[in-house]
Design brief:
The protein has helices spanning 4-59, 67-79, 113-122, 166-216, 232-280, 289-318, 330-340, 342-347, 367-383, 442-452; strands at 83-87, 93-98, 101-102, 125-129, 138-149, 152-164, 326-329, 351-355, 362-365, 390-398, 401-409, 457-462, 465-474. By secondary structure, the protein is of the alpha+beta class. The chain has three domains: 4-170, Beta-Lactamase, CATH 3.30.450; 241-317, Signal transduction histidine kinase, dimerisation/phosphotransfer (DHp) domain (Helix Hairpins, Orthogonal Bundle); 323-474, Histidine kinase-like ATPase, C-terminal domain (Heat Shock Protein 90), CATH 3.30.565.10. Strands 7, 8, 9, 10, 11, 12 and 13 form a seven-stranded mixed beta sheet that branches.
């Protein structure tokens, strides 16, 4: 596998090498050109100096063949640490100093005609050439030697100052050695730093990958390290941990849901099977068969309600149940629900305090789903009301919303349990655990339906009075 560490290291190392190669090439080129320009400028200055000195000697009627003349030029050549060549205007060499010593090896030699013409036309000459005289290329700079005769300048000769390129080459090599030595040290440090940096960046990702793999195998208590880092890796770790907490919570709820559903299904099925077997094998006397058949019927209906609500919940969660947005009268809907629950209300000896507007309250929503919401809230209020108390039902309008409230008197729901009562199969130990008919899905379906309709529901419980209030959007 082409790991992130290898790719990151290769990319960084390649960029460092390319940068150094580019920098080195630029440095060597610029330094060499600078050295050449400096050398040429120095030679030009020396050539002008030697031309001026030669002009003074010739003005004093010192002949070229004179020993003093050679001595002056030789001393001057040693002073400027260069080789000096004196030529006639036609290019014939008259004098030359090699290594600072006079020599007659220049007799009969000529410098190239192109150099002569350039000196005569432009008054200066600068090049890197062997002049057809030397065995190697040298830096050469030249200037004409002029003497004033009656106020008129006359070119009496040409002066060429030369120097070997060995000095420049050695200097350039010295620069190169220093540069390459420094580059090697810097590259080693850069590669080491790059390796450490790449390892530090990829190590937490590898650890996180291992955690994700183990988490996917069911170890939901694992969390990624690195959440204290203030970079992208730390942000990724925090995001993963938040996701892991959510998945772990969902998995816990799923496990509880399966356990509760199993229990809720097992209880009526066990009752039905037990009483049916008792009737069939004669354990239950014939005179009590009707009583136990009624119990079987009640448990069967309870089982059917549980299955129906589970199917409704499944359709809501999967999106298969499409909630329409139509106009209907919520007062009429609530009145129908009260009529359908009249038997249960009378059975608990409860009174109903209904406070509805005089006219219809038209709202937008799905009539069947809102009917189920109202039914579940009323059924919940009936089950947990103290016998002989009053159930309050009210519908008010404000700010483009209809507010439907259902209030009952019974046990106070603890404050810490209020955020949980809309969860699947949630039953509080103080009230719902004693409810035989409840399956813990009614309020969950209420919350889910209202969320699908983009509406809200709130609950308060104080001094034994519990009130649910949900909203609907007014149609007019």
């Amino acid at each position: 596998m082409n790991s992130l560490f290898k790719r990151h290291f290769a990319l960084t190392a390649g960029m460092i090498l390319f940068s150094f190669a580019l920098l080195g090439s630029a440095f060597m080129t610029l330094s060499y050109q600078y050295a050449v320009r400096d050398q040429k400028a120095s030679l030009d200055s020396k050539a002008n100096y030697m031309a001026a000195l030669t002009s003074q000697l010739l003005s004093r009627e010192v002949g070229v063949a004179d020993e003093d003349f050679e001595a002056y030029l030789t001393a001057a050549a040693r002073l400027i640490d260069s080789d000096v060549i004196l030529c006639q205007p036609d290019g014939q060499v008259l004098f030359g100093s090699g290594g600072g010593e006079p020599t007659d090896a220049w007799d009969g030699k000529y410098i190239p005609q192109a150099a002569v013409e350039k000196l005569l036309q432009e008054g200066r000459y600068s090049a890197m050439t062997s002049l057809g005289i030397f065995s190697e290329r040298r830096f050469v700079s030249g200037a004409p030697v002029t003497v004033n005769r009656g106020g008129t300048p006359e070119i009496r000769g040409l002066i060429l100052v030369t120097i070997s390129t060995d000095e420049l080459t050695e200097m350039w090599r010295g620069f190169s050695v220093i540069f390459f030595f420094t580059a090697v040290v810097v590259l080693c440090i850069a590669f080491l730093s790059c390796s450490v940096s790449s390892r530090q960046q990829t190590k937490p990702l590898q650890e996180m990958t291992d955690v994700v793999r183990r988490f996917g195998m069911g170890e939901y208590d694992l969390r990624a390290d690195g959440h204290n880092r203030n970079d992208e890796v730390g942000e990724l770790a925090r995001a993963f941990n938040a996701m892991a907490d959510s998945i772990a919570c969902a998995e816990q709820k799923r496990s509880e849901f399966v356990a509760n559903i199993s229990h809720e299904l097992k209880t009526p099925m066990t009752t039905i099977a037990g009483f049916a077997d008792g009737i069939l094998d004669g354990t239950i006397p014939p005179e009590k068969e009707r009583e136990y058949l009624q119990t079987i019927s009640d448990e069967t209906r309870r089982l059917a309600r549980l299955v129906r609500r589970m199917l409704d919940m499944s359709r809501l969660q999967s999106g298969d149940m499409v909630l329409s947005q139509t106009e209907f009268d919520v007062v009429e809907t609530m009145a129908q629900v009260l009529i359908s629950l009249e038997g249960k209300i009378n059975g608990r000896k409860l009174d109903v305090d209904a406070r509805f507007p005089d006219g219809p309250v038209l709202v937008w929503g799905d009539p069947d789903s809102i009917t189920q919401v109202c039914y579940n809230l009323m059924d919940n209020a009936i089950k947990f009301s103290t016998p002989g108390t009053v159930i309050g039902v009210s519908i008010t309008t404000k700010g483009g919303k209809a507010y439907v409230s259902v209030r009952n008197t019974g046990e106070t729901i603890p404050e810490e349990e209020l955020p949980l009562i809309f969860d699947r199969l949630h039953k509080s130990d103080r009230s719902r655990s004693l409810d035989k008919e409840g399956v813990g899905l009614g309020l969950y379906l209420v919350k889910t339906i209202l969320n699908e309709l983009k509406e809200s529901i709130t609950v308060t419980s104080k001094d034994g009075v519990t009130e649910f209030t949900f909203t609907l959007t007014l149609a007019r």
